[in-house]
Amino acid sequence: MSALLEYRGIGKVFPGVVALDGVSFAVESGEVRALIGENGAGKSTLLKILSGQYQPDSGDLLVDGQPRHFTSPRESQDAGIAIIHQELQLAPELSVAENLMLGAFPARGGFVDRHELRARATEVLLRLGEQIDPDTRLGDLSIGRRQMVEIGRALLRDARIIAFDEPTSSLSTREVERLMEIIGDLRGEGKAILYVSHRMEEVYRLADTATVLRDGTHVLDAAPVGPADADRLVGAMAGRKIEDIYGFRARALGGQSIALHGVEGHGLRQPVDLSASRGEIVGLFGLVGAGRSELFRLIFGAERRTAGTVMIEGRDLPPENPRAAIAAGLAFCPEDRKREGIVPLAPVRENLALAWRNLHTATPLLRPSREAALADEQIDALRIKTASAETAIETLSGGNQQKAVIARWLMADARILLLDEPTRGIDVGARSEIYDLIYKFAEGGGTVLFASSDMPEVLGVADRIVVMREGSVSGVVARADATSDRLLRLALPEASPPMSDNGEKETVPA
């Protein structure tokens, strides 16, 4: 095998920040190399150099042994390189077929050949295992299916070097399995695969080799890669042992803070009854499409409940009224952080103040100075890494953006947090910081409901686990009784009727 891709002594400096310092490694034909490290380690900068978005300040990028200096994404693509970005580079208003062939529409007689466009789109969708009408508007698809469309674009371009940036962060279990098969096929075809992921189980399963970055430097190479390397890899990334990531802390529980009775609405197949206490952390586990996100939106009022009640501290919360939910102390951090959680171009300060402003509309003259002071307090308290409160939030790492979204609600004195996939696309170190925020909030008497498809996270953080399956609650399991096998039996669609470990039907307490 020969190296299709090589980074040789790559350096990149931004004002006041050394993003990369002499990074060197190679990816051979038929090799899957994992690129791992915490947010800010330099992974995204390396991918942007490969894509032509950035140019290195020192060192060389070699493709097929030849130095290349890409000055645009088009030059990179023409060299046979494809980047599957975590933040999707798609046009939601166009059809699936148009997104798949964007920039390379088949033509006939000077016009787009719609028949050929649909045919080629259908072919790649079938290869991905997706039964999607090519004429479907992309924005109508789930995040997971949009991610598969992004992957399909690379397959259609027949790229020789493919970089995947957190490709499974929004995929269902079935889609993840199909992606693993596709990457295996690409390896067999002699492609060079660069795989960026924070999900170590995927790295162990998929990667032939791994390169670890920390603070812009290359600190470790591992080959082969497997679960036995866990402590070594995590230690190289974050300087801590893997068992320290979740850091669960038990705490005393208070009275009931939120109660759902017979809640129905979009995305739910059966009425949901659920309650949580002050100081409690409740995890909602399930596969993509299980109804967890939909339930959160119904609770918060982002979607209208068609039946049932939500009680906050004993008071009925009106449906379809996020303003009332915020006033009642309820907070919602959505799964799609970029589209629904932040205002990308606005500064960190304004993003933090959004909910606080909603509660202080009667005192506009006092807002600016008080708002700035409170924002600075949250930036310091949550250790949000930003040059200043006036920095655009889109320039922050994923972990710091997520801390900013949580800080927004702490600034508004929220008492109940609804966190939808709170660590999606976040590295090991930032995850640990997010968990610490969750524990501190609960220790202060707050209530946390968090939805996650990451089973180790749910097992490691939650006091109690609510399992959802196909729009309904299939079981509620106490932390002491929770096992991977039990949660999977409750979550999988093909599973038999929910049963407890003693053979009796699983009970679902309110």
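The above is record 1. Record 2 follows with the same two-line structure.
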Amino acid sequence: MTEQQQDESKLERAIRKIKRCLALSQSSNENEAATAMRQAQSLMREYRLTEMDVRLSDVGEVESEMSRVKRRPTWDRHLSSIIGQAFDVRPFSRRNWCSATGRIVDRALFVGVNPGPQIAMYAYETLLAKVTQARREYVARVRSGKQRSAYSPETAGDHFALAWVSAVHGKIHELVPRGEEDLGLPQHSNGRDLVAVEAQSKALVDQYLATKEIGKARKVREVELDLNAQIEGLLAGQRVELNAGLASGGQDVLQLGKTG
């Protein structure tokens, strides 16, 4: 077996292990889930570092299991957009036939260098569940009259969710590795290594998308927002806790929680 074949075999095993870790990270056992995410995050970084050569890069796509019959609302698409920026993957929406529901549904899709899309999808679906629940509770308060709004409960809920996502935006970026030191590149690196990796990833994703029928993301149109809903959404988003835990070797872990 050649050295290249050995590297590729090691890479394939790492990707399989990352997927198993991501599956375990959905466990209801908090300790098991946290351990699985630590392992996945550690392997992700190791994988990125071993992908300095184009031949070891592997672009893939991950489609969300969560779907909507109608087009995904603006706040949902905004969430996938900021997740995409944070994890260096491209966010899209995909409409296709769902045999389970017998309808065409709309889902989030991430494209990027593996295992970026898988990690991004985990973060997206976890946060989507949280913002959806927070929005549902806010809509109920507006509908019952406990929360005042000049808009319908559903529209006020959309404005609330947009602000919630905006509040969480900065927290996500604070947790994701940034720069050469965080990515584990050699301390003597002058920045060219990091630029090379990013340029390589972009070129690979561009090439991948050229062979796929994936539509461009729609521009978000500006709307006048409910100020009360914005304030409530920002406050709710600020209460969401994203903790960076320490893993073996000083690796960070993305843990998603919420304060009381």
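The longest strand covers residues 103-113.
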